[in-house]
Amino acid sequence: MDPKPHFETLARYNRWANRRLYEAAAALTGAQFVEDRGAFFGSLCGTLNHILVADRLWLERIEGCGPKPSSLDEILHGDFAGLRAAREAEDERILRVVADTPAERFETILAYRNTAGVPFELPFAQVVTHIFNHQTHHRGQAHSLLSQFGLKTPVLDFVYFLLDLR
Predict the structure, then answer these.
(1) Which residues face 111 on adjacent strands?
(2) Above 90 in pLDDT, residue 165?
(3) Over 90: is that where the pLDDT of 2 sits?
């Protein structure tokens, strides 16, 4: 079975979920966006930046080019508008990378170095799975942060994405 269509679907789901999350987050004030709420990355700003940082790190490892943040907690964009635009661009990049990846690459091993320079090797398909799983994990944290501000939070479940496709 060709795994590529599955990953293309996950890339489209990822963009759908991010758009819904950012739409809800747009209701926050600038102060609320950066307020430390005790989350793993502190604020909604920190959490959403971390997702972008991780995506950029993994895509740089996959493509061998592109932005390479220096730390997992780097704040790439301290303002919501800038971060939202960067997120949109990164989601389009993810869609392109998955579409441009030959099906046979999903059966290979990806050799890379982590941010500390330590070398690792993992199956490529599992790395791509991790990218989407990582986003889902931290979107859940962001979702919780939004609810702490009393906002109506969007449904982000994969099955609702599939139903929206109908």
Answers:
(1) 121
(2) no
(3) no
Residue 48 above 90 pLDDT? Answer: yes
β-bridge partners, 29: none
Q: Are 34 and 42 in contact (CB under 8 A)?
A: no
Q: Phi and psi (nearest 5°) for 122?
A: -140, 155
Q: How many residues does the chain have?
A: 166
Dihedrals phi, psi of 15, to nearest 5 degrees:
-65, -45
Cα(5)–Cα(150) distance, integer angstroms: 37
Structure tokens at 15: 């963009």
158-163: average pLDDT? 96
Q: Which token pair is 39? A: 């989350």
Q: E strand or H helix at 112, and its extent? A: strand 109-113
CA 4/CA 157 separation, integer angstroms? 21
